[in-house]
Amino acid sequence: MEHGVMVRNANARATFAMATTAAVYLTLMNHGDTGYTLTGVSVPADIASEAQIHTTVMEGDMMRMRQVTDGIDVAPDNMVEFKPGGYHIMLMGLVNPLTKGNKFNLTLHFADQQSKTVEVTVGEQGKQGGHHHH
Questions:
Q1: How far is Cα 98 from Cα 33, in angstroms, rounded to an integer?
Q2: Which of 22, 23, 71, 78 is in Cβ range 3.0-4.6 Å of 91 for a Cys bridge?
Q3: Residues in the chain with pLDDT < 50?
Q4: Domain count along the chain
């Protein structure tokens, strides 16, 4: 069964040679009349050992990354953007660096037990050296 959530622009930034983490960004679009809750994400073991949904929160004057454990709701006829400074998917325990032009599969897991696999394209390296605030 085709899941009611569409995924657009799934992308990751290329990583530096010694990087052990990477961020994935995408847009979830729900054109149906049923709400969905994204509860988890996964990638093949040859990409990274773990994938988690994170959000960025301000604590005082510091930006911190927090794992999202209670899911992300995608309301009917709505969209949720995963972007720098907001929701993002963290890949932890990278097996190899992500290099520009590579592609890999990311599986989204939903509360209704459905899952959807999308192809992530690796783009340019980010300007800063990644994610240091964990």
A1: 37
A2: 22
A3: 1, 128-134
A4: 1
